Amino acid sequence: MSERGALRTRLDQLAREVAKFGTVGALGLVVNIAVSNLLWRTTDLQVVRAGLLATFIAILFNYVGFRYWTYRDRDKTGRTRELTLFLLFSGVGAVIENGVLYVATYGFGWDTPLQSNVFKILGIGIATLFRFWSYRTWVFKALPAPEPTEPTEPAEPAEPAPAAEEEVLEGFLKQERRSERASRVEAESARR
What we know:
Layout: H1 3-42, H2 47-70, H3 79-107, H4 113-139, H5 162-191
């Protein structure tokens, strides 16, 4: 495969991965926002604590989606390591996500339901970039690529050897001579 074809293949695979990651993430976003709003409206939890709890519920939802759909073809041998790293990087993402909400709520006093949702979504967006990079790099590791075999040189069309060409030509000439002789013999027979 040419370098251009290999690059095209890698970009197509990355596009599919991003689409699957985005689909699971979008569903996780719905879970996160729904649980956040439910907790904000029905409990006395502070805004950031409710947001943090919603984030961890969404993280559990996302793990199932990533492991069994987005990254189902990735290495499955170290599930304990995988889950530990997933929770670690998800925790860092939760700090990023809710850090934005914290700064907006307590730093600027923006704590209306609309403002809380806007900054929750902004934080999720920033944290998503970090999560995509960390999950694909450290958590759901790609299986090693199979060892490439030595590319074989494409077989060039076999050209007849000069000796073979000469033999073919000689055979053709002999055939012609036989035809001429046969014609002369027939002509002489016809004259007699």
